[in-house]
Amino acid sequence: MRWARDLVQRGKARAILRLAGEGGHILDVGTGSGMLLRLLTRMGTDPATLWANDFSAEVLSDLSRRGFHILTGPAESLQTDKRFRVICLNQVLEHLQNPVAAINRLSRLIEKGGYLFIETPSTEGIDFHFFGRRYWGGYHFPRHFWLFNEASLKQLLEQAGLRIAEVRYLCSPAFWIQSFHHALLDKGWPRFSRFFSEKNPLLLAPFTALDFAIIGVRGKTSNIRIVAQKVA
Length: 232
Prior knowledge:
By secondary structure, the chain is α/β, with parallel strands linked by helices. The protein has a single domain, classed as Rossmann fold (3-Layer(aba) Sandwich). Helix content is 42%, strand content 20%. The protein is built from nine helices and seven strands; from the N terminus they run αβαβαββαβααβαααβ. Strands 3-2-1-4-5-7-6 form a seven-stranded mixed beta sheet, with helices on both faces. Helix 3 (57-65) links the parallel strand 2 (50-54) and strand 3 (69-72). Helix 7 packs across helix 9 (201-216). The chain is globular, with a radius of gyration of 18 Å. The chain starts with a helix and ends with a strand.
């Protein structure tokens, strides 16, 4: 499971590094523990080009000690004279109080030709259509304030003056597993529901394969990556 997770995360990091190019500065918004930034350094990225943001200086204190640049404050009102080649919102947009204000603000912090890199849950996956009335794992109540689909994300980014450069759907086995867990628990089958854990490799493998198959036939999953470029 750890190997599979690391493989997925390294693929994400390589995609970000391709956008950043040689020496491009990267800002990770809502970085939390800084897992993405730490991975980028392990892959050879100069920490001097990496910036961490979160709402709390206490959250960022360990990253500061490790030599990362720090920007404290909410994404909606982030202030800095620095301009970035890539700004990442890695499973963060759905948690923000005001996504419109955040995207508008962050778009101003991207250098011309730079990118906004977003991964967020999507309500267009098959699991959402099966479980969306009540049990869908992507709700993450009460942590997810907003939910998006491809059209609403494109509208959000284009209204901020950004051009859509890439849309890609990614595997999201955890949402399948959580959805079944919630449904079984609510139906009064707690013993069966305990089997449906995202830590269970017997379930992660088939649901990952299912999402890969859906992507292979140009279908949509419950995890979307959208990259937008600042062209002016």
